[in-house]
């Protein structure tokens, strides 16, 4: 495990600005995430949007953090039936997908 830095990229929401800046670096806002909590949150925001979720190992590999960093939140999500209790996976249940914002709030 080691330090990780992620970049969050977002296009402008304004159609006029998008057209005016399309194809230039100004068309995309880049935010560098360096804090472990931010990186873990970003990972969970993306992984839990997927019906199949992802292997727990992805969290470790892509955030540089042990899975214990989200253990309490994961336990609570499993207790609420928002995450499947599947060894080795971080996978939302159908209820978790239906209540995705509430599930993701646990990890923010």
Overall description:
By secondary structure, the protein is of the alpha+beta class. The chain has helices at residues 15-21, 36-47, 56-63, 71-79, 94-98, 100-105, and strands at residues 6-11, 28-33, 54-55, 89-90. The protein has a two-stranded antiparallel sheet with strand order 1-2. Strands 3-4 form a two-stranded antiparallel sheet. It is globular, with a radius of gyration of 16 Å. It starts with 5 loop residues before the first strand and ends with a helix.
Mean pLDDT: 90
Q: What coarse outline follows from CA principal-axis ratios?
A: globular
Largest sheet: 2 strands, antiparallel
| DSSP strand count | 4
Describe the strand arrangement of the main beta sheet, using strand numbers. Answer: 1-2
Helix-strand category: alpha+beta
Enumerate how many helices there are, as a single number.
6
Radius of gyration: 16 Å
How far apart lie the N and C ends?
A: 21 Å
The percent of residues in helical segments reads: 40-55%
Query: Strand-and-helix sequence, N→C?
Result: EHEHEHHEHH
Relative strand content? 5-15%
Q: Uncertain segments of ≥5 residues (pLDDT<50)?
A: none
Quick rundown:
The chain is an alpha+beta fold and 108 residues long.
What characteristics describe this protein?
108 residues; alpha+beta; two-stranded antiparallel sheet; 6 helices
């Amino acid at each position: 495990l080691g330090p990780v830095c992620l970049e969050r990229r977002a296009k402008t929401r304004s159609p006029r600005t998008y057209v005016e800046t399309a194809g230039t670096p100004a068309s995309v806002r880049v935010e560098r995430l360096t804090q472990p909590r931010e990186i873990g949150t970003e990972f969970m925001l993306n992984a839990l949007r997927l019906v199949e979720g992802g292997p727990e190992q992805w969290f470790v590999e892509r955030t540089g953090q042990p899975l214990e960093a989200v253990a309490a939140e994961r336990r609570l999500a499993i207790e609420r039936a928002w995450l499947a209790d599947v060894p080795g996976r971080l996978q939302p249940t159908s209820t978790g997908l239906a209540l995705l914002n509430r599930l993701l709030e646990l990890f923010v």
